[in-house]
Amino acid sequence: MKINAQMVKDLRDKTAAGMMDCKKALNETDGDMEKAVDLLRQKGLAVAAKRAGRATSEGTIETYIHAGGKIAAMVELSCESDFVAKTDAFVEFARDLALHVAAVNPVAITREEIPEDVLAREKDIYVQQALDSGKPENIVEKMVGGKMEKFIKEICLLDQQFVKDPDFTIQELITDLIGKMGESISIKRIARFQVGA
Predict the structure, then answer these.
(1) Best label site of 46, 103, 176, 185, fewest CB within 10 Å?
(2) What is the distance between the alpha carbons of residues 14 and 88, in angstroms, rounded to a whole number?
(3) Domain residue spans of the chain
(4) Could you tell me the pLDDT band of residue 15, with boundaries at 50, 70 and 90?
(5) Other C-beta atoms within 10 Å of 101: how many?
């Protein structure tokens, strides 16, 4: 199939990938727009994996204050260079993260940072609920495992579905941004404040 400039522009608008990357993806997928989007996302994952270990000593701190000043959030988003830290896409993503933290109130950034006592308390509740419902021991374990996974996805920032677009998790959005920016990007710290809490 002949790839024209309009197709490249449409793919670029959808993915924000570079023009040559879009053209190459369309050529590799014989002009199939959806397959080209998937291919670009896969390449973004590969770039993110290569860049994961690199130091992120630049970045920005963004805040979000909800109307009325009762809830606020602050996020430190880091990257490798000052150049990327000042791009509109990077700053906008940091602002969106702050809004997300204010709205969803994650307990931790990563699964490893979730306090053990929070997990243990929740697990005890699920085990007791399952036992009270009369389920056999082997079923209880599977039920609790599934409920714990769901609970972790609700409280871990990277696993949460993005409040502005639930089709993507925060981790997927970061991976996509890494692919676009070509640098390692990480969330260093988050804080959420609520009047009276």
Answers:
(1) 46
(2) 17
(3) 5-51, 58-109+156-194, 115-155
(4) low
(5) 26
Q: Residue 187: enclosing H or E segment and its boundaries? A: strand 186-194
Alpha helices (H) along the chain: 5-15, 19-28, 33-51, 82-85, 88-104, 116-132, 137-155, 170-181
What CATH number belongs to 115-155?
Answer: 1.10.286.20
What is the length of the chain?
197
| Position 159 pLDDT exceeds 80 | yes
How far apart CA 191 and CA 187 sit, in angstroms, is: 11
Q: How far apart are CA 4 and CA 124, in angstroms?
A: 59
Measured between alpha carbons, how far is 43 from 180 in angstroms, rounded to an integer? Answer: 10
58-109+156-194, which class in CATH?
alpha beta
Report, at the CATH architecture level, how domain 5-51 is classified. Orthogonal Bundle (1.10)
Domain 5-51 and domain 58-109+156-194 have a common topology:
no
Structure tokens at 124: 């005890």
Q: What's the pLDDT tens digit per position in 42-61?
A: 766 545 555 555 556 789 99
CA distance 30 to 36: 9
